[in-house]
Amino acid sequence: MKSDLRPKLVIFDVDGTLIDSQGHIVASMAGAYRAIGQAPPARERVLSIVGLSLPVAMARLSPDLEGAQIATLVEAYKDTFGDLRRRNDPLAASPLYPGARDQLTALSKRTDVLLGVATGKSRRGLDALLETHALTDWFVTTQVADDHPSKPHPSMLFSALAEAGVTAADAVMIGDTEYDIAMAGAADIASIGVSWGYHAADTLHATGAALVIDGFAQLPAALDAVWKGVIDG
Questions:
Q1: Could you confirm whether 180 is annotated as catalytic?
Q2: DSSP code of 172?
Q3: In this predicted model, what pLDDT tens digit does every residue of 145-165 receive, in sequence order?
Q4: 46: Cβ–Cβ under 8 A, 6 or more apart, which residues?
């Protein structure tokens, strides 16, 4: 039996997992497509690609567009997103999901747990959100799309493990999309899906999530179940 004294790393996705930013995402995508004179994709399609890095997401939404147009979409999206943040109350427009702060607080107080982030957001976008919600100092590692291939490539998680000094067996990925779950699987990290985000619970289970929770109050028990499985495995 493995020792349970080694530090554990809990890595969170952001959009759709910690933060409900779908209003900003959909509005920013509409602004991006206006910049190239096209109608934006339907809301459901936009939300289905949340979690992917922007260039990959744009190419998936509009496979007929060329590289220069994709680059224009990406920059227009970033500009629109930033403008919306300046013109609106970010706490109201991109709130934490119910119970998220309570669970982050509880986990941050545990001496055996470290917290991390792996997100398709840019560094600028993540830093702004963490500052808005006073979470800047809570995470020992924050991995963003600027520095890695898009999810589900495991590069983000490999870097998170290295920065935290934790093995894959002692880490858990928390996410709302199949990209999060597939990324965790590619890094040999256990994953817990959340049902309140952008992909269905059945999809998360099918992609390999050990568990799918329906609210943050269920997270402690889910983590204990996963860790017990790792420890006894």
A1: no
A2: E
A3: 999 999 999 999 999 999 999
A4: 25, 26, 29, 40, 61
